[in-house]
Amino acid sequence: MSIRMKLNYSGMLEEMIGEHGVQLEELNALMGQLDRARNELMERHGKGDLEWMGLPNTEEYVEQAEEVWNGCREGVENLVVLGIGGSALGNTALQTALRPPFWNMLPDGKRTGARLFVMDNVDPERLETLLGIVDAEKTVFNVITKSGSTAETAAQFLCVLGKVKEKLGEDWKKRFIFTTDPAKGAMRKLVQDCGLMSLPVPAGVGGRFSVLSPVGLLSTVATGADARALLKGAREMYMHFRSSTAERNVPLLLSGLLYLADTTRGQKIHVMMPYSDRLRDMADWFRQIWAESLGKAVDRNGKKLNSGPTPVKALGTTDQHSQVQLYIEGPFDKVVIMVEVEEESSGLAMGSQLIDSTAFTYLEGRRLAELFKAELIGTKVALTNAGRPNMTLTLPRVDEEAAGEFMFAWELATAVAGELYCIDAFDQPGVEGGKVAAYALMGREGFEDARERIAQLEKKLEGFVAP
Amino acid sequence: MSIRMKLNYSGMLEEMIGEHGVQLEELNALMGQLDRARNELMERHGKGDLEWMGLPNTEEYVEQAEEVWNGCREGVENLVVLGIGGSALGNTALQTALRPPFWNMLPDGKRTGARLFVMDNVDPERLETLLGIVDAEKTVFNVITKSGSTAETAAQFLCVLGKVKEKLGEDWKKRFIFTTDPAKGAMRKLVQDCGLMSLPVPAGVGGRFSVLSPVGLLSTVATGADARALLKGAREMYMHFRSSTAERNVPLLLSGLLYLADTTRGQKIHVMMPYSDRLRDMADWFRQIWAESLGKAVDRNGKKLNSGPTPVKALGTTDQHSQVQLYIEGPFDKVVIMVEVEEESSGLAMGSQLIDSTAFTYLEGRRLAELFKAELIGTKVALTNAGRPNMTLTLPRVDEEAAGEFMFAWELATAVAGELYCIDAFDQPGVEGGKVAAYALMGREGFEDARERIAQLEKKLEGFVAP
Hints:
Chain A is 46% helix and 13% strand. With 467 residues, chain A is α/β, with parallel strands linked by helices. Chain A folds into two domains: 231 residues, Glucose-6-phosphate isomerase like protein, domain 1 (Rossmann fold, 3-Layer(aba) Sandwich); 173 residues, 3-Layer(aba) Sandwich (Rossmann fold). In chain A, the strands form three sheets. The first copy, chain A, has a five-stranded mixed beta sheet, with helices on both faces. In chain A, strand 8 and strand 9 form a beta hairpin. In chain A, helix 2 crosses helix 10. The first copy, chain A, is globular. At the A-B interface, strand 1, helix 5, helix 6, helix 7 and helix 11 of A face strand 1, helix 5, helix 6, helix 7 and helix 11 of B.
């Protein structure tokens, strides 16, 4: 038993890329701190804290998800997730990674699970159009909100509920599954009052660390992917994290290298660039966990910091024709984390002698996957030659185990980075102000003062407008 | 005649957000330089240079696109764009903006134009899957490459051509439209040799400035959007740019404010955050034009710079639950450009008295669009209160004219920014290294030396791998 993911961090080091690289001595000097960070996290988890660390070992949630899904799946074609942020990004990332491209458009015979639509916003046109193309009788809506009070999710729910009640009357109760706190909140109360289907978001599992809980497991099961293999991969990563020396420990190295790049080299932009369309939404999931966990105003002692790297989503080869010019020639403020998949996803090949031209002789008869790989190496070489920090995460293929390894590695790396920055990686105090303002603007009771203050500010903000 | 887009830049100024804001005096001091930059660009364009500036006035390209499309559209359900970078991003952005959500999945009666698939990558599984779901006889493939030699586009073409020839034999010729240089390159030669359908990419129109040329017009026409209105919006913006004083000139203010933020305040990350699902891919299009144009190693005199802001794509409200924590509490290294749409895209409302709970009373009976707007204002207020630079671009609605105004405003702002940074905004020398490496790895003739060098580097890069 061991992980299949590999991290090649040669391109991060001064000896490969020169002055903008990390010195091996600096990295070695950090090993003790990385070790202590790991021990601290393991200890807290051992005492019952950081429950998300135990999710890879909690197969009972898979059973619960299967039970709920099997209880309602008959005749169901669509699962619609109503949620936002941590209640949406993981579902999207897993679906894109684990199901074939164009999943929702495949002809019925080629799709062995439900279609999945994740409503990650409150754009009214998008939700209304969706309700026009999915048949309520063939659709299950999964409302995901840990607190039960997220405004956007509640709003999506109230819009959908009205339409579904119109069509199905009391049968609406068979069309909703609530994934929410096991005991508290408005959604749990509704579940209890109306006897609705539900799954728990365990205490101590925050939104962005929840993908391996029922939050991410129901859609995994519903789309026909192997949720147990997903947990198995995460479990391998957990054991690797627990027992490997710091020098060989992938989550520790990820956090240590990126922390050094940010704090000692001013490389505050961390680009994740998978060379795989299936992994494109994993970069979006990473974007949340890295930004929201590490972007903090103060450290644990209340000292002002205003720190946190900015994660950026990119895609190879696409962004070679959009962002790589900047990555190669712009400021030395970035690390590029390339994600490589070893196994070719398709044998699709370029035809030979199809056209009367020698311009493309070098491509003829070759597999498209060969070009894809050559582009990855080409970019890695170009970044390295330009002295640009880069590293490569390699997965053997994109499957459930690999997804579990990958996601759990980043959850662990994020928690370790929280220790290095000496911040609380699990809160998000900075979003309160915007929430209060939105409540006030919606006329929610108790927010009258805020409303008045906003009106004044809005007026002041009208000062400079063009044309 | 005047533009409908508004720019509110109050949140950029010191008097609103404090020390991280730009001083009005600094902005005023830049006005002369902005004026000169505009005059310089207008003069170059007047002499026949910068042909992209004339595209809003070139309706003949719309006519050509219509003629080509009308010549082959009968029985056609799908348009597949084969291209990458500037040959793909504009098509995607326009389709998302101008057609309803879930366009490709709408039932036939509700779709009054072709479905559009943009292959912006060489992921073999995605292309192979697509070829399995579109019927070759009902599909037209639009190969877009100005030079005619882009490796990724040629590779996509050779893969598709093989499959289409297998199915249709010589009739393959009716299934391809080439958008390429009017006279030069391998694709133009193929068009001439085989008598194929084609459109020109005019000289002096680089990929990222090509969306208003046949590059973006064919898919606009094919999906049933109004290409003339798109050009009309761009034309309004051109005239506004030409004749408005710098103080009221939207493209000049965009470039001036972002230039000052970058170079005098260290705000090197420029986030575009539309509150509209229809505009999400516009942010991706912006990402290319801003990064590839301004990320440069040297200035026009060869002086070393390594400058250029990093554009980031975000989406409201979605990213309030992912990135806004970082934007509010993290480093003061960002400007957030919010994009607001005035008209509500749908009247979808939240039901009342659907559930027995007072938790959501503040939402009941309200339109979802009201919440969407409240979230935008809430975030703007929170950013401003936290002293974070922000500005808001407001469009009356998302339609062709607005898209034309928006895109041309950013093309002009990019060109002006090139003048301010004193760099060439129209080249991309930094991507050559990666291209050469990819050619070498594919065994292209003449790249043998490079191949040897890469092999050596690859070996050195194997030094540090975990676990």
